[in-house]
Design brief:
- The protein has 200 residues and is of the alpha/beta class.
- It has 2 domains: 126 residues, 3-Layer(aba) Sandwich (Rossmann fold); 62 residues, no CATH class.
- A 5-stranded parallel sheet has the order 2-3-1-4-5, with helices on both faces.
- The radius of gyration is 18 Å and the shape is globular.
- Catalyzes the phosphorylation of the 3'-hydroxyl group of dephosphocoenzyme A to form coenzyme A.
- It is found in: Cytoplasm.
- Its EC number is 2.7.1.24.
- One of its GO terms (biological process) is coenzyme A biosynthetic process.
- It comes from Aquiflexum gelatinilyticum.
């Protein structure tokens, strides 16, 4: 991965950990940020090769006649079927990886950030030079998500948390850990990591 001018840094964290807030602080410092989950949605809706592969694997109903992604149909296909989850991830993740590489190569910054919920779970952290994990106690995460997404209930949030790698595991794999708790300020932690990355 040395062909990139910028250092590739991942930023991850479980649902409700506050990784988007942390990413915003980095962007205020002028660091370019690639939002992997948003780009994945965009690619599924707009990338002709990916659209074709999704139709081959999940049927033509995956898209409307106008070519609009039928999220409800796809979700119903993938929901609770581990094999189908693997299939869709196997199509989307390589497309996101290639898209990120192209994007990162075009940036003029000492380092760039790739923000993604499942960096460790998908193995995509191996493509990066450094990884930041935003860590937060589960009770705080649940209350944050319930405030942010009133349509979710506590059981749904717990189900999502159960599918993600526990913080202890992520913290071991990460190069930097940002603790997002009620008694730790985020900005000094971000500035410290920023300073270290600018030196690399």
């Amino acid at each position: 991965m040395t062909s990139h001018k910028s250092i590739l840094v991942g930023i991850t964290g479980g649902i409700g950990s506050g990784k988007s807030t942390v990413a915003r602080i980095f962007s205020i410092l002028g660091i370019p940020i690639y939002y992997a989950d948003d780009r994945a949605k965009w690619l599924m809706a707009n990338d002709p090769d990916l659209k074709k592969q999704i139709q081959v694997n999940f049927g033509n109903e995956s898209y409307s006649e106008e070519g609009v992604l039928n999220r409800a149909f796809l979700a119903s296909k993938v929901f609770s079927d581990e094999e189908k989850v693997k299939t869709i991830n196997g199509l989307v993740h390589p497309a996101v990886r290639a898209d990120f590489e192209t994007w990162a190569y075009a940036q003029k910054s000492p380092y760039v950030l790739k923000e993604a919920a499942l960096l460790f779970e998908t193995g995509s952290y191996k493509d990066l030079d450094k990884v930041i994990n935003v860590s937060s106690p589960i009770r705080i995460r649940i209350s944050r998500v319930l405030m942010r997404d009133p349509h979710r209930n506590e059981k749904q949030v717990n189900d999502i948390i159960d599918k993600q790698l526990p913080d202890e595991e992520k913290n071991k794999l990460a190069d930097f850990v940002i603790k997002n708790t009620d008694n730790k300020l985020l900005i000094p932690q971000v500035l410290e990591i920023h300073k270290q990355l600018m030196k690399v």
